[in-house]
Amino acid sequence: MYPMKTTTLISAFALSSIAAGSAAAAPAPAPTPSAASGAAWDIVADLTTEVGPRLAGSDREAAARDWAVARLKAMGFANVRTEPFTIPGWVRGAETARLTAPYPQTLHITALGNSVPTPAGGLTAELVYFPTLDALKAAPDGSLKGKIAFVDHAMRANQDGSGYGPYGQVRRQGPAIASQKGAAAIVIRSVGTDSNRDPHTGGTTFPAGTPAIPAGAVSAPDAGLIARIAAGGKPMALNLVLEGHPQNDMPSGNVIADLPGRNPALPPILLGCHLDSWDLGTGAVDDGAGCAIITAAALRAQAGGRPLRTIRVLWAGSEELGGFGGAAYAKAHAAEPHALAMESDFGADRVWRLRTTMADANKPLADRLAAALGPMGIVRSGDRANGGTDVEPIIAAQKLAVIDLEQDGTRYFDLHHTPDDTLDKIDPAQLEQKVAAWTAVLKIVANEPGAITGGN
Question: Is the peptide bond before 102 cis (omega within 30 degrees of 0)?
């Protein structure tokens, strides 16, 4: 996803368990620096090769959890475990779209998660064009009865990825709005910035009382085709087959592991990513890279000896379908103190900006972070850090300090949720820069002896 989705989590370390002499009690020896050498590339390469796509609730997400436990243990992490939970999941099915009027054209389409299937044999209906989500909102109630809505938009690439918030509403809210207007189905321009023929999937939601309808996204070139035809004024019709469907009580889970610090009385640093992915690509940039980065940095921060504080990594499950892993972690670890959280969930390109949310008393700590990152070309922002989907629930519950290491998102939404989300899109040099930035931060915050608290 994206760091509306972009934060680093800090999980709570079970201090009470340590005191009770549980599995968390025996600190493992610090991994050697060589254990972190090339670790980020190896993690994301092996995860995408040996497991591949990891749709939430699927058998491949389960295989990824097993893979993650084995890999984290092999790298020297302690207290490695899976914390299972169930989700309202979604299963992909057959998906096709074809304009039948005024010109027969096959479109490249993908279903949106949480949508429902078309009737048996598909649906053929009038296609009604809306240039924006606001135009759909303005349609009279009932005006789309029996019709298929098409919603266009104009998302453009930018460094901070901020376009995803407003333009992503076409996917997040559009299907529910179309349903409320009486539509039989909806198709949207993919929420992305590329110009190839790969459609972008992603989740949508239907509020209570709003009937779920079939919902899909077409590639940018196909959306352009629809827009040109609409501009000509000729009526359009679409044959749509989307067989993806919701399925309740599907298995998922989080994978958690610790690098114990020298002082178990200090609340830990939580680093978050998500292990699940959409199923069109192999989940390399979203979010295999994030798990690789936080893990490699946690290992590299052990060079020269274990830090004061425990560093915990959270490889969250089922982020893409609704942030279920982050919510499950916050519920399971509500009673455990945490110091600070960070998340990596915005691909693998370089870090360019630092944001922090800390109490005024921690300003000297934030200043040290800015000074350490400045020589890497990473600038400081006055905006507040907010974490990402996988850590936001525990941040909110405990009012934690937060650090965001913001990445260059210029090309992220070319790949996001598409078949093109594969390992070859990761630049090893940019991946290494990100690991180095995270390591520099961890070397400071994990060795901070004083209280680390969130801002107001």
Answer: yes
Structure-block tokens of residue 329: 């972690």
pTM of the model: 0.92
- Are 386 and 358 in contact by the 8 Å Cβ rule? The answer is no
pLDDT single digits (tens) 9-48: 333 333 333 333 333 334 444 444 344 558 999 999 999 9
Q: Are residues 159 and 288 in the same domain?
A: no
> DSSP H helical segments within 338-427, as ranges?
363-373, 392-398, 412-415
In 3D space, the residue among 206, 251, 222 whose CA is nearest the CA of residue 113 turns out to be 206
Distance of alpha carbon 87 from alpha carbon 395, whole angstroms: 22
For residue 65, which phi and psi values (nearest 5 degrees)?
A: -65, -45
For residue 58, CA distances in Å to 51, 128, 279, 326 come to 12, 35, 10, 18
pLDDT at 1: 58
Considering the chain, what is the average pLDDT of its residues? 93
- Chain centroid to CA 50: 21
- C-alpha–C-alpha distance, residues 151 and 129, integer Å: 6
Q: Is the per-residue pLDDT at 5 higher than 50?
A: no
When divided into structural domains, the chain yields a total of 2
Pair (52, 103) in one structural domain: no
Separation of alpha carbons 363 and 27, rounded Å? 31
Q: Indicate if 48 and 112 belong to the same structural domain.
A: no
